[in-house]
Design goal:
Rossmann fold, two-stranded antiparallel ribbon, Tumour Suppressor Smad4, 2 domains, 16 strands, alpha+beta
């Protein structure tokens, strides 16, 4: 097969030696072209070009943000997306049950290619941009933006960078007194909210080795699971975090926390410009955010043996 290997050399766990070994392994069995990203949005353009040129698959060695860019280049095309771990969290890779070591992950990917183990999945779209895993609105996006301000710290601290950024935003950098936005999904309306997550997969993310499951059972590729806080206090927040870490389903409706499943659309109206992120990559702010789910829009290369 013809493969485009997209490498983000700035990603947290990508090394020159690892990149060479991955390329060498793939090239034993396939026709491989390697491209390195050089700027924000570059992976999207590389993936779009690969789809136009009829490549069979784009393999990304990078983090979830680089994968998001590739998703936006491949959406609607027959060219498949393969993921190798190169970031600090690697949510997609771990959700698929791919090994954490890049070389072991490459062997897993080669087995999937040999078996033509492809799966067509749905994508979310927020204000025109696609996402595969999740969209974070409000507080969540502010944390991601804070982490991106200190990319060097993220590279070395890993998950601790997100914990530190969350503590900073909670205490100093996010308004928890005035609601940020209103949200509507079908018949359900949340008139005042501070923090929302639109999930196209479960788990939402990982804290070290522990998956954080916010709306358990949300299938990879949707339709959406939605979680919203209408108050951002420790009394409202900590029980949800504890349940997410333990993997237990939320027992009934928690006060100040709303979850929905199986949704194909939602809209966010900000009381001021609302920060949002897609697949762990900060996008910016918007007064209105329209999110829609599109069925079977991306071909994903998946392991032959799915995670249990």
């Amino acid at each position: 097969m013809r493969l485009l290997l997209v490498v983000n050399t700035s990603a947290s766990s990508v090394t020159p030696r690892g990149r060479v070994l991955v390329e060498r392994s793939l090239s034993k069995y396939h026709d491989v072209v390697t491209k390195e990203t050089s700027r924000r949005g570059h992976a999207a353009r590389l993936a779009l070009g690969a789809a136009a040129d009829g490549f069979d698959a784009v393999v990304v060695l990078g983090g979830d943000g680089t994968l998001n860019e590739a998703v936006n280049g491949l959406a609607g095309s027959p060219t498949a997306l393969g993921a190798l771990p190169g970031g600090s969290t690697n949510v997609l890779v771990r959700t698929l049950g791919v090994p954490a070591d890049p070389l072991d992950a490459t062997d897993c990917l080669l087995e999937a290619l040999a078996a033509r183990s492809f799966r067509r999945v749905g994508l979310g779209q927020a204000n025109g941009r696609y996402f595969l895993l999740h969209a974070g609105i409000g507080f969540d996006a502010a944390v991601v933006e804070a982490v991106e301000r200190f990319m060097g710290f993220k590279r070395y601290a890993g998950p601790a960078a997100f914990v530190a950024a969350a503590a900073w935003c909670w205490g100093f950098d996010y308004d928890r007194k005035s609601p940020t936005f209103a949200l509507r999904a079908g018949e359900v309306a949340v008139p005042e909210a501070y923090f929302g997550i639109c999930l196209n997969s479960d788990p939402y993310t990982y804290l070290g080795d522990r998956p954080l499951s916010v709306v358990p059972g949300t299938p990879l590729g949707g339709p959406f699971g939605i979680a919203v806080f209408d108050k951002l206090t420790l009394r409202a927040f900590l029980p949800v975090v504890a349940s997410a870490i333990s993997g237990r389903r939320h027992s009934g409706r928690r006060k100040h926390f709303v979850t929905l499943s199986g949704k194909a659309a939602l809209s966010v109206s900000g009381f001021r410009p609302v920060p949002y992120q897609l697949d762990g990559e900060y996008v910016g702010t918007a007064q209105h955010i329209d999110l829609k789910w599109h069925e079977a829009l991306l071909t994903l290369l998946v392991p032959q043996t799915p995670p249990s």
